[in-house]
Amino acid sequence: MPFVAGRVAPYRRGMLRPRLSFARQTLLLQVVVITLVVSVGLFVFGWLLDGELTAQYGERARAVAHAVATDPDIVEAANRIDPRTGRHDPDGVVQARAEAVRLSTDVLFVVVTDKDGIRLSHPIPGEVGHRVSTDPSEALAGRDVVTVQRGTLGDSARAKVPLRDQTGQVIGIVSVGIDLNDIQTRWRGIVAVAGLYTLAALALGVAGAALLTRRLRRLTLGLEPHELAELLQEREAVLHGIGEGMLAVDAAGRISVYNGEAERLLGIHSPVGATLADIDLPVGVRSALSDDGDADNLVTVAGDRVLVATRRQVWREGRSLGRVLTLRDRTDFEKLVSELDAVRTLTEGLRAQRHEFSNRLHLIAGLLETGHHVEAVEYLHMVSASSVVMTDADDQAILDPYLRAFLAAKRALAAEKGVGLDISEGSWVARRVTAPVEVITILGNLLDNAIDAARLGATRPAWVEIVLAGEQDTLHVSVADSGDGVASSMVDRMFEQGVSTRAGDSRGLGLAIVQQSVHALGGAVWLAQLGGDGEGAVFAARLPAVLAAETGADQDAS
């Protein structure tokens, strides 16, 4: 079944979940921050706008005051004095002109005074002739004054400028005021518009925060940050705690996840993000990661290890997310299998010999019982000449009991398949084998291949010859057969996994395991003779440090 990446189930922990989820906390925090920023911005804008409007209206009042102060009719009338009463502007010209300006400019008041601060004009006629309610000294001193003050007509932004005659002498002041209510009305109108924009910005910000929160919940599958942290810790614990190697690639063929066991088995380092082409992977592993679909029990060789791989395709909502490869180290298992195979070979060899000798003993017993003694003696000589057990010469040439027993069993099995297995007269191993599992694994696979090649070859009688030679602690091996040889097209690939001259799912591992075992010993294996044209192939191997150091007993035996 393909692995389907679905929605993560609700995460259950012993701890209590917070009252508000992280997504809601994030949304609430964003709303508070946005509201605070917008509110502070609106407040600062209103505060600055109030000062700016007050200053602008004050400048407007000063402009109107300067226009009145430069009116020659007002200057002449303010400078005229009634000789009988001693009052300025006896004809009321200043009052009429000032009111006309007030009405045309829509200001609160236009007040003109003499140099003593006595009003010559006022919106309330009854106030004419009275002293102004605010201090006129700065303006009478020749300076413009713009300020916000309370007068008889209430609070206003007012400007006071000196009124000068033709000679430039200050003869009074002109005071123009604009009602603060007009400024506040204008301020409220602008702030209301800004407030609408602020509310729109606030609503947009909250909507964006809500969408971001929803996106966050979707990306995190509804999990809280502490739950994600715990999941990550548990993922790392599981990923690096399992005994199997795990390697995952995404849909684009990039390595996305791997654990320490995969790094150890494949000899890779920090490959996350790299493509398959960038990493030196064994052929079988690369092929397993490149193919689609699920697969079980893919046997591959990585360096000196035999690995079993399982591939799973990962799907989510009908879309492929990549492949996951799990790797199991079967090297130790292969060694045990080889050792058991050697025991099985010995057992089958003994069983074959038992059946053969049982039949021969029955024949000899029958001959003796019937009085055919001469025929019994001749049959014994024939049996002795064709025996498949180790000869005395073999016993003297090969002292190790593992090798003698193994070769005897292989000779019996080869004989059952119609192949004669001979130990060369040049063989000589005077020391014990210290690595019997590895040596038997190598010899067993070489002999099995040679026996099959001889059995399927055209030459008859079929034969296999093995040469074993000890040189100090090194064992030299040569296996020749009467088969049809090795095709030249397979020479460069014959030690690769899956390469075989015969069809079958379990083929192509023997020589790969031989090479792996030989390299593990620090030795070498090679094709010494290609064969063909009536000659079979010859494989040779050099196995260092597999023979024991020479002892006195060994020297005596030699």
Backbone structural class: alpha+beta
Order of helices and strands: EHHHEHEEEHHEEHHEEEHHHHEHEEHEEH
Number of separate helices: 15
The counted number of beta strands is 15
The portion of residues assigned to helices is: 40-55%
Give average pLDDT, whole number: 77
Low-confidence stretches: 1-16, 552-558
What percentage of amino acids are in beta strands? 15-25%
From the alpha carbons, calculate the radius of gyration and give it in angstroms. 56 Å
Biggest sheet record: 6 strands, mixed
Walk me through this protein's architecture:
This protein has 558 residues and is an alpha+beta fold. Helices cover 46% and strands 20% of the residues. It has 15 helices and 15 strands. The chain has helices spanning 22-69, 72-79, 93-105, 137-140, 180-219, 225-241, 260-266, 283-290, 331-369, 373-385, 392-397, 401-416, 436-456, 510-521, 552-557, and strands spanning 3-4, 109-114, 145-151, 154-164, 170-179, 245-250, 255-258, 295-302, 305-316, 319-329, 419-423, 462-471, 474-481, 524-529, 538-543. Strands 1, 6, 7, 8, 9 and 10 form a six-stranded mixed sheet that branches. The chain has a five-stranded mixed sheet with strand order 11-12-13-15-14, covered by helices on one side. The protein has a four-stranded antiparallel sheet with strand order 2-5-4-3. A hairpin with a 5-residue loop joins strand 4 and strand 5 (170-179). Helix 12 packs parallel to helix 13 (436-456). The radius of gyration is 56 Å and the shape is rod-shaped. The relative contact order is 0.07.
